[in-house]
Amino acid sequence: MEDPEPQILEAVDQDVLRQDKLRALKDVAAGTCGGIVQVLVGQPFDTTKVRLQSAPLGTYNGAMDVVTQLLRNEGPSGFYKGTLTPLVGVGACVSIQFGVFEGMKRYFNEENRKLGKLNNELSYTQFYFSGAVSGLANSFLASPIEHIRIRLQTQASTRPAQFSGPLDVIRKAYNASGIPGVFRGITPTLLREGNGMGYVRISFLNSPLKINIEPSFYFLSYEYLVIRDIEKNKIQRKDIPGWRLCLYGAAAGYGLWLTSYPFDVIKSRMQTDLMTAGDQQFTSTLDCAKKTYRSFGLKGFFKGFLPTMLRAAPVNASTFYAFELAIRFLG
User: Fold this and answer.
1) Handedness of CA 200, 49, 59, 84 (dihedral sign)
2) How many angstroms separate the Cα of 314 from the Cα of each of 14, 68, 169, 296, 318?
3) 54 with 268: CB under 8 angstroms?
4) What is d(CA 93, CA 179) in angstroms, rounded to the nearest whole number?
């Protein structure tokens, strides 16, 4: 007989949340704060990653070569190319991620109450679907925003600029291929976000910490660590020190990219392809995957992995910390 599915105790008074009519707005506002911090911290790493992912074979010898060439040819400001779009857009994306995730948690708590479960417990499956739905909802905004950012990040200042700004990217993508041109890369984005925003099961079996990686990651890994901290130290969520929140956010970031990085490579290669449908190198997500493997082998799906993993800790630590601080401030 199989063991019953483990439950996770929600460390928030759900009766209070149900009575707070501004709860959804507060979640979105806090998510926006997290998204803005994410962009400011992560943009240099992201520019390095995208150039490694999309450059022709032999352009760069590695992440440090990208950094060296970028500093030499474009200066420090080159790391922040295309920042305006993600600063506005990623703030919106992360607000959707956190807003939908928190909303789904409340939905499942309400469903559990109807079934007579009054202890505010959510199952792993409920956390998984909460994270997956938040990722899928976010994809439809994230895909065009990342498309715009990548086009701007990969145009070098030493050549005549192909795009004058975000609106010019949208206009040219639409003129070349219509709405599908603007949303190019939506399929790998859905795969990355839907898979990446689920969970990792983390168990505390004496010492050291044991981590069992399961199908999907991001939000549950963070929530699980937070709730275990609350249970172990007999404290409230608002009393968790900032440095521990940062560690839990970093762990969530590593979990996300360890499971979803190949989808991100495919997305980046599709979004740096030619804009006109008839001239494009890749006709579909599957075609891009096949050609990437044919040209580079398995390692082709991990181009730019090092800067991404270096980015994961500070970016996700700061994102979750900013979210928690905003939630504490907003109440």
Assistant:
1) positive
2) 31, 22, 29, 30, 6
3) yes
4) 20
Condensed to tens digits (0 to 9), the pLDDT of residues 279-300 reads 999 999 999 999 999 999 999 9
What is this structure's pTM? 0.72
| Contact by Cβ (8 Å): 316, 253 | yes
Contact 6, 291 (CB under 8 A): no
Q: What is the mean pLDDT of the chain?
A: 81
Degrees, nearest 5: CA angle 118-31-38: 135
Q: How far apart are CA 228 and CA 85, in angstroms?
A: 37
Residue among 311, 303, 310 at smallest CA distance from 52? 303
Exposed, middle or buried: residue 302 (CB in 10 Å: 0-12, 13-18, 19+)?
middle
pLDDT digits (tens, 9 = 90+) for 111-164: 888 888 766 677 777 877 888 888 888 889 889 988 998 898 788 654 677 888
DSSP code for 9? E
> Which amino acid is residue 248, in one-letter code?
Y
Max CA distance (Å), the chain: 67
pLDDT digits (tens, 9 = 90+) for 6-48: 444 444 445 545 556 677 788 888 888 888 888 888 888 888 8
Integer Cα distance of 18 and 116 in angstroms: 17
Return d(Cα 70, Cα 78) in angstroms, integer. Answer: 6
* Antiparallel, parallel or unpaired: β 121-123 and 201-203: unpaired
CB atoms within 10 A of CB 138: 27
Helix axes 63-74, 23-54, angle to 10 degrees: 90
